[in-house]
Prior knowledge:
Layout: E1 4-6, H1 8-18, H2 26-44, E2 52-57, E3 72-78, E4 86-94, E5 100-116, E6 131-137, H3 149-152, E7 156-157, E8 172-173, E9 180-187, E10 190-198, E11 207-212, E12 218-225, E13 228-231
Parallel strand pairs: 9-13
Antiparallel strand pairs: 1-3, 2-5, 3-4, 4-5, 5-6, 7-8, 9-10, 10-11, 11-12, 12-13
Amino acid sequence: MLKYIFSLLLLSCFIVVSYSPLAHATTDKHQAIEKFAESFIKAQLSSSQNERVSIEVTKIDRRITVSQCEGNMSAELVGNKSLQRSATVRIRCDNADNWQIHVIVKIIRLVPVVVSNRPLSKGSLLTKNNTKIEYMNRVLLRSGYISDLEFVNRARLKRQLAGEQMISTRDICLVCKGENVTITSSVGNLTVKTDGVALANGILGEKINVRNSKSKRIVSGVVEAAGVIQINY
């Protein structure tokens, strides 16, 4: 619920524990409002299981005079409510002064990203020994980033990478064009395997064309693993 209301009693209790009384320091009033905005945003945020979310509250200009709130304080989002990069929170005090102030909150969502752990040349075979996970700001990432080390295991690089560089789906092929592959097809409990040649680059789960080495027929299948193409009838 975007309307977030704390009673003055709850706010006062928090301030007594963490800060000097509001009546004795203007700075403490600003800090209490900043904490109030932070708590409000935390209550609104949702994140995926692998995300790490951090919040940075922009300091209120200390030249702004804030009186002690004798009534209830409330908070609500202003403008963009997607909560992806930043948010503006309007804090209101419902008392005789009836003041309000806007607080800007920066939201940083970090996601796991597969990177190289040392410089790698084109054609390098990726393993858990030369890749690792780093957490990066999601809004700064280009499309195609990979979050699972298993996705790149035994894939080959299509270009040279520096150390600590992000590996994207555009940088790898689990099955590479011209590579000998195993074509598998299943009918009921029967599985048939034959040799083939990949006619395109492919990553895990991608559909590509392959040529059957025996029949010379071109068929389409899904990359199931390194060097393995699954044909579904």
